[in-house]
Amino acid sequence: MARKRKLSARTARKLEASLFIAPWLIGFMCFMAFPLLFSLYLSFHSIKVLPGQRIYEYVGLRHYKEILYKSSELYESLIPFFQETLIMIPVILVFSFMIAILLHQKLPGRSLFRTLFFLPVIFSTGYVLTEFVNQGAGSLNFLAQRSVEESLNAWLGDSAWARPVKSILSHFVLVLWYSGVQILIFLAGRQTISHSSYEAARIDGASPWETFWKITLPAMSPFILLNLFYTVLDLFTFPYNPIIWLINDNQRSYGYNSAMAWVYFAMIVLFLALMMLLVWLMTRGSRQPYRFWK
Q1: Which of residues 187 and 135 earns the better pLDDT score?
Q2: Where are the alpha helices (DSSP H) in the chain?
Q3: Are residues 224 and 255 in the same domain?
Q4: Which of 42, 45, 96, 127 has its CA 20 to 30 Å from the CA of residue 224?
Q5: Is residue 207 domain-resident?
C-alpha cells in the first residue's frame, strides 16, 4: 500500500508539472512549431513568387554554402557583435549582482527601489526600446562633454576592441534597462541563503569580505549560471542586433534569409555549449567539502 501511495503521489506531481507547462507547450505547437519547421524547409529551397502561386525549387545546401563560404556580410556584422556581447555579459551580471545585494539590505524605501529597477523591463521592450534609442535616450552625453571619447581613442587606438568598447560606453543606459530580470533573479537567490550561515561566520570571526567569497558567492552560483544563459539569449535577441536586421532584409529571397536564421541559431547553440563547458570546467571541483576560511 505504501508503494502504491508513493507511486500515485509521484504520478500526481508529474501531472501537476505537466499542467503548468501545458499552456506554453500548446502555444508553442500552435504558433511556433510550424513557422520553425517551415523556415527550415525554405532554407533548402529557392522560392519564386508569381501571381497566385509560389514555386519552390530544391537547391540543397546552396544557401548555407553561400552564407558560410562565399559571402562576408554575416561575418562583418557577427564579429563586432560578438565582441560587444563578450563585454556586455560580465558588465550586466556584475552590475545586477551588486544592485541585488544592495536591494537586499534593510534600506528605507527598499520596495520602491526594487520597483524602479524593474520598470525598464516593462516599458523598454521591442518597438518602445527602438524608439528610445532612435531619439537618443540610450546614449550618455557626458562622453562627448568630458572628452572621454578622445581618451578612449588615445588608449585603444585602432584595435579591434575600440569600436565595441566605445559603443557600450556610449549606450551604457542599456545596461540598466536590460538588468531588471537579472536583478530580480539575484535578489530571489540571495533570499534563499539562511541567516544562520552569516551568524556562524560572524561568530567565528569572518570579515564581510570573507563572508562574501565563502558564503554568498558559492551559494549564488546556480543563479549566476541562470542569469548567464538568460543574458546571452536576451542579447542575441536584442532589437538592435545587427544579425537580426540582416536576416530581416527584404532584398534577399526567403530561402536565403531562412538559411541565415538557422546558421545564426546554430552559432547561438554553439556559444551556449562553449559557455556550459567553461562553467563545468570551472566548477567540477566544487563538490568537495568547502572550508569557510583558512
Answers
A1: 187
A2: 2-31, 33-42, 62-65, 73-104, 110-123, 127-134, 142-145, 148-156, 162-170, 173-177, 180-190, 195-203, 208-211, 217-219, 221-236, 242-247, 254-283
A3: no
A4: 127
A5: yes
In whole angstroms, give the CA distance from residue 287 to residue 179: 30
Residues 127 and 255 in one domain: no
**What CATH code is carried by the domain that includes residue 187?**
1.10.3720.10
- Predicted TM-score (pTM) of the model is 0.71
**Over the Cα atoms of the chain, what is R_g?**
24
Residues 270 and 135 in one domain: no
Digit-coded pLDDT (tens) for 102-118: 888 877 777 777 777 77
Note the pLDDT tens digit of each residue in 59-68: 888 889 888 8
Total number of domains constituting the chain: 2
Rounded Cα distance between 57 and 148, Å, is 54
Q: Which H or E element spans position 57?
A: strand 53-58
